[in-house]
Amino acid sequence: MTEGGGRVFTVGGEEFAALDPDAHVRLRLPTAEAGELVSQHPTAVRSGDWVRLPIADVNGQALNSWVRRAWLACAPPELAALASAAESADRAGDLPKAIGRPATRALAGAGITTLDQVARLSDAELGALHGVGPKAVRILREALDAR
């Protein structure tokens, strides 16, 4: 939490994003990516390696992508490499394809690539992984029951 009620997001002790109390988002991006964001959003303002823009001026899917890029730029190299590897995983182990790519990436990023590993987790633990929603949990449980 920042002074005045905003929120700051960190990885490895580095700030990579913030939501200011005045409904502006700030993202810490590499130079080229900061320039790209500013060129796409006329209300974006660049200050060093930070870009600030009204959150209402960017859709949720685009914001998610920009936050991820900021996170990757600030994350410790080992963590960023793990996240990138998980993102590139089309399908891991024997997990059902029907759970979708976000859930597959989230599970792979947590080192979960088989239904046997899924069986050891509760629904709450699965649902706590960003990208694994109720539908994916249901599909995983159905796949386990069918075995």
Question: What does this protein look like?
Answer:
The chain has helices at 31-40, 60-74, 77-88, 101-109, 115-119, 123-127, 134-146, and strands at 7-11, 14-19, 24-28, 45-47, 50-54. The mean pLDDT is 89. The chain has a 5-stranded antiparallel sheet with strand order 1-2-3-5-4, covered by helices on one side. Strand 1 and strand 2 form a beta hairpin. The N and C termini lie far apart (46 Å). With 147 residues, it is α+β, with helices and mostly antiparallel strands. The protein has 2 domains: 7-75, Aspartate Aminotransferase, domain 1; 80-146, DNA polymerase, domain 1. It contains 7 helices and 5 strands; from the N terminus they run βββαββαααααα. It is elongated, with a radius of gyration of 18 Å.
List the helices and strands and how they pair.
Layout: E1 7-11, E2 14-19, E3 24-28, H1 31-40, E4 45-47, E5 50-54, H2 60-74, H3 77-88, H4 101-109, H5 115-119, H6 123-127, H7 134-146
Shape: elongated
Give the averaged pLDDT, no decimals: 89
Instruction: Estimate the helix proportion, in percent.
Output: 40-55%
Q: Trace the largest sheet across and list its strands.
A: 1-2-3-5-4
